[in-house]
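subagent[fold] <- orchestrator: predict structure for attached chain, return tokens only, no commentary.
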Amino acid sequence: MDYYSNENIGNKSGTVLFKVAKAICDIHIHYWNEEIVTYKYRELLEFYNEEPDIQNALLQAIKNYEACPTTLTHDDLLPINVLCKGDEVRIIDWCHAKRAPYFQDLARLIAHLDGHNKNWFAEEDISLLLEEYYKLLTDSGIPLDKQQYQADIQSGILLQLAVSQSKMGNTVIGNQYLNKMKSLAQTMQNTKCNRNC
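subagent[fold] -> orchestrator:
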């Protein structure tokens, strides 16, 4: 058993982020499947009755989620569950692992880069992580349109934010999530889903 200090992926970039993308992608490629799964995200729609832009974006995200290829996902991929030792990366705490749409892990990781926790990597590195993951996925032979990939990631992030925000309600962090959701809902209006969404 290796000992890893309490060093998560906070403030890491470059090589470490490429290794995070590779670690996630290797698992996703191995368990890739066209099987469709459903989740109880539709229950969230009622929570956002007074936010029609968010509600419409959530409906689009749910349809996308339900039409996506699936794989084995960690399902709790928060920065605290990605440990580093030098440039080596370990993903820990797999107790919530399940079959879900491939974008679930990256979406959860990105959605919870709140900005209030300075130990996690900077948001400007997100595009690096997403680009590397997409490259690894498509280089493996999995056909995935770049525009659809971007729509998938946006859908996943919105769903993750909605789950967290609905639990936190009118708190400082809950309101941060709500503001992120409003911004993302606007962005999603201009993003085309190429599947039957």
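orchestrator: received. Logging for downstream: The first helix runs from residue 15 to 30. The helical segments are 15-30, 43-47, 52-67, 104-111, 126-139, 146-168, 172-188.
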